[in-house]
Design brief:
Rossmann fold, Alpha-Beta Plaits, 2 domains, alpha/beta, globular, 7-stranded mixed sheet, 4-stranded antiparallel sheet, 14 strands, 295 residues
Length: 295
């Protein structure tokens, strides 16, 4: 096992809020496995803080600056970032700072998502423990919250649940707590799959389940599912829409999330092309989630 670095570099940047999601995605996928978000200046700016080993900070910061420069040019903006600062901290300092930044989240009045070191703020059977190694799946992102609200409203005991782009596994864990009959969770990111498995253990999942790294092709021989959640990106959703529709049982539910409001018309066109005409849209900030009723 590799030794933990003795010191880390804490990188802080103040960014225009409109670009927080794309920048957070880049940081998580390419630089750091976790980050801290801090709202600033009545939401015009957002603070992003993350930690990288001291011996590798130069390459990481060059990679980040190149990405920000390309983004600025593509968006035709003079500047996206107000400031970037760095400071060296000891290993234990950044761990403590990160732990303090992660607070329990309550969704739909009875779903709690919390890290293992925090107590639940309300009494509920839907107490989900997530080891927060990822930017999403902790309840702070609009797409996760929308999916959770739909699951709480529509999911019934004994339903078969398919979680495409499972991430931390939060939706599958909720399905287990709502007495699912079977759960299958898949993600093409090995770190997500590792985190999902860890969180299944933390939550003592009782439902029969499988967790796989890979694509929707892993489901091609499966029996239909009563409830299918697909929380990924638009391009992938549109490419696999026919497949996930076929995997959704008659009278079942298909949830499509990770979509922006600007994507709605394109998504609607693809739904209609696949004879999926009965749906509703849940919106929060700039994000949209489709709940499709399968005939």
């Amino acid at each position: 096992m590799a030794e933990q670095p003795l010191a880390y570099v804490e990188v802080s940047l103040s960014l225009l809020s409109a670009y927080k999601d794309v920048v957070c995605d880049f940081i998580i996928e390419n630089i750091a496995r976790g980050l801290i978000l801090e709202e600033e200046d009545e939401n015009k700016f957002v603070g992003i803080k993350f930690y990288i080993p001291q011996n590798g900070e130069n390459d990481s910061l060059i990679k980040l600056q190149d990405f920000l420069d390309d983004l600025r040019l593509s968006e035709n903006k003079r500047s996206l970032v107000l400031k970037i600062t760095e400071r060296v901290v000891k290993n234990i300092e950044w761990e403590e700072a990160y732990r303090k930044s992660v607070e329990p989240v309550v969704i739909s009045k009875d779903v709690v998502i919390r890290p293992p070191w925090k107590e639940k703020p309300i009494e509920t059977d839907f107490d989900i423990i997530i080891e927060p190694k990822m930017a999403f799946g902790t309840g702070n992102h609009e797409t996760t919250r929308s999916c959770i609200r739909i699951v709480r409203k529509k999911f019934l005991p004994s339903m078969r649940f398919l979680d495409v782009g499972c991430g931390s596994g939060v939706l599958s864990i909720l399905a287990d707590k709502m007495n699912a009959g079977y759960i299958k969770a898949i993600d093409n990111d090995p770190l997500s799959v590792e985190n999902c498995r860890e969180n299944f253990i933390l939550n003592k999942i009782q439902t029969p389940y499988d967790i796989f790294q890979g694509t929707i092709a892993l489901c091609q021989n499966d029996n239909p599912y009563d409830f299918v959640c697909v929380n990924i990106i638009k391009s992938v959703i549109l490419n696999i829409l026919g497949e996930v529709s076929n995997l959704t049982a008659p009278n079942g539910f298909l949830v499509l999330s990770g979509l922006l409001k600007d994507d709605e018309q394109e998504v609607i066109a693809h739904l209609q092309k696949n004879q999926l005409n009965d749906f509703e849209i849940l919106r929060e900030n700039e994000w949209s989630t489709f709940l499709v009723y399968k005939k």
